[in-house]
Design brief:
The chain is α/β, with parallel strands linked by helices. Helix content is 34%, strand content 17%. It has seven helices and eight strands, in the order E-E-E-H-E-H-H-E-H-E-H-E-H-E-H. Helix 6 links the parallel strand 7 (198-203) and strand 8. Helix 1 (54-61) packs across helix 7 (248-264) and helix 3 packs across helix 4. The relative contact order is 0.15.
């Protein structure tokens, strides 16, 4: 049975209530990584009662406590509310971890597709407002380029996502003026140095491949530690956009485990 939604109450200078589900199916040891997970859905109307993403199971299998945040219902999936909601949840988790003193669990943020964009924006804000506390960011085919001009995006029609992604960007940004904000579309941000280390994953047959790798390269060029992984075509990776698992889940589990060891060392 899936965990039930509960409310994460955030105190301090920011006050907010964010619905979360806490998944900790394979936790071992006293200091497991804590991952704030943001689901994609192309910035469309969220369905909080939907089954958990298969991504969560892979992160659980790697020993993480996964805090799934329903940032979309609270924010209407528009910028800046969606990113601010995600950051508030991250800030609230950080506060809870701080109460346990030294040697606490590493805190990470993860997101796929549109959730990857929001996670990247929240990671930038974490660099600016809670420096040194975010151990890493896990970006799974982040939907990160609102221009949709990459070569690989031409394959979006083949999996029935081009119109959905285009409509999603229009909904999330509202107007072109929003692009001037560095957290709205992080791939357009000119100051990426100092952000948390990143694991960026995609696949050879992924329409979001080029923009995902482009952002990874831009992070690396700014001095950020980046791990890039490109799964082979046919691994079922694009099932990510439809909540469908596949052989890619084992690869995600292995890559996340290695990334945790890297950022915790």
């Amino acid at each position: 049975m899936s965990p039930q939604w509960e409310t994460l109450e955030i105190d301090g200078p920011w006050k907010a209530s964010v619905p979360v589900r806490i998944h900790k199916g394979n936790v071992q040891g006293g200091k497991p990584p804590i991952v704030l997970y943001l689901k994609g859905d192309a910035f469309q109307q969220p369905t909080p009662d939907a089954a958990p993403s298969p991504v969560i199971g892979a992160l659980e299998d790697a020993g993480a406590v996964v805090v799934e945040a329903d940032y979309g219902s609270v924010s209407g999936n528009v910028f800046p509310k969606a990113m601010e909601c995600a950051f508030l949840a991250l800030h609230g988790l950080n506060d809870k971890l701080n109460r346990h003193g030294k040697g606490k669990s590493p805190l990470l943020i993860a997101g796929d597709e549109a959730g990857g964009n929001v996670a990247a924006g929240a990671a930038l804000k974490a660099r600016d407002q809670m420096p040194g506390r975010l151990a890493g960011q896990v970006l799974l085919s982040p939907m990160i380029d609102p221009m949709m001009t990459s070569a690989s995006i031409r394959g979006a029609d083949e999996i029935g996502m081009r119109e959905r992604w285009s409509d999603g960007w229009s909904h999330y940004l509202g107007s072109a003026c929003t692009l001037q904000h560095p957290y709205a579309a992080p791939c357009l941000c000119s100051r990426l140095s100092g952000v948390a280390p990143a694991l960026v994953m995609t696949s050879e047959d992924d329409p979001l491949r080029d923009e995902s790798l482009g952002y990874a390269d831009k992070l690396a060029g700014s001095g950020v530690k980046v791990t890039k992984r490109i799964l082979p075509a046919g691994s079922g990776w694009t099932g990510l956009y439809h909540g469908i698992g596949g052989v890619w889940l084992a690869s995600l589990c292995l890559e996340f485990s290695a990334f945790i060891r890297q950022v915790a060392s």
